[in-house]
Amino acid sequence: MESSQSNGEAVLVNDLSSLTVRECSAASDRPEPLPPHLSHDPENNLKRSDPFQFGSRLLSQEDNVFEFNAWDHVETDDTYKEYAELQYAKQREAPVSDFDKSRFNSDPAKWWNNFYKNNTANFFKDRKWLQQEFPVLSEITKPDAGPVTLLEVGAGAGNTAFPILKHNQNPYLKIHACDFSKKAVEVIRENEAYNTKNIQADVWDAASEDLPPGLGEACVDVVVMIFIFSALSPSQWKQAVQNIYRVLKPGGEVLFRDYGRGDLAQVRFKKGRYLEENFYIRGDGTRVYFFEKDELVKIWTGKEIEGTGSASTGFEVVNLGVDRRLLVNRAKQLKMYRCWMQGRFRKQEKLVPS
């Protein structure tokens, strides 16, 4: 299950074109501020190996915001936050009708199948950033990495699986690419790079009580979940996390990326799209949720906040970051605030009782 906006594509919005920006703590906590335009040195703009350093193009007061297409670590200002809260209030006042709520929630697979049928020509985008943000993907594809089983949940058109295979040198790597949509699985299987020696694509509902086809308990080394958890309803999260726990080996990791609260995609929703708090129906009938950091900690560990309480899900947070970026349309002088959540969750050796 992969959203039509899951690649982080920019959406233009005229209302926000005059807003100002300020640096968030991720940038301002640095020991010394960067001199004007030092961040524009190409050497400083490369992705870092740490998956939670989302880039180094930092916006300072001396910079012209429209000089580049994107800036990293940009926190939204009070004007944008006030505008967003007004939008949320309007969304709550005009929610999805009870009839449509039942229609969209009763058979979500139908809408994802339609999505892939209607976008056969343009939904594949090579996620070149994957191995930069998640270095473990580079490690498992090395020639001497040995037997590795990777499960991708919500594989979509293969935007994650095929880029990994393209760079793979490990003859013992096996990718299980699973998706809720039958049409998406068909698209993967029809790809010229599909070879059952290294990749197996199957239909699987992550929130069902069954494990993925061909996989049993504790047999997976890495689980990749890129813009898929947001497609589940909040009532399905617990079962999905339990399923991931079951298939992972002790010490295995989940690589996670999804939408964050306040992302422009959320702010833009009009009336008739609000299902419940932070949960919406897109125009194509697919669902999307926007997460907060503490919320994800609770979902994946059972803790209210990091460092408190006892884990009840069997996962610990290796790292969890908020990726805030400012995308710019220089020709139209427009600003677009994006927010994504990115994390790594590790299966504990033993489940800690709550």
TrEMBL record:
Q: Under which EC number(s) is this enzyme classified? A: 2.1.1.-
| Enzyme class, spelled out | transferase
GO BP: any one term: methylation
Recorded GO MF terms: tRNA (cytidine-3-)-methyltransferase activity
Methyltransferase type domain ranges (all copies):
151-253
Q: State the UniProt keywords alphabetically.
A: Methyltransferase, Transferase
The segments labelled Disordered in the record are 23-46
Question: Known PANTHER family for this protein?
Answer: METHYLTRANSFERASE-RELATED, TRNA N(3)-METHYLCYTIDINE METHYLTRANSFERASE METTL2
The text of the family note is: Belongs to the methyltransferase superfamily. METL family.
What does the UniProt function comment say about this protein? S-adenosyl-L-methionine-dependent methyltransferase.
Q: What is this protein called?
A: tRNA N(3)-methylcytidine methyltransferase
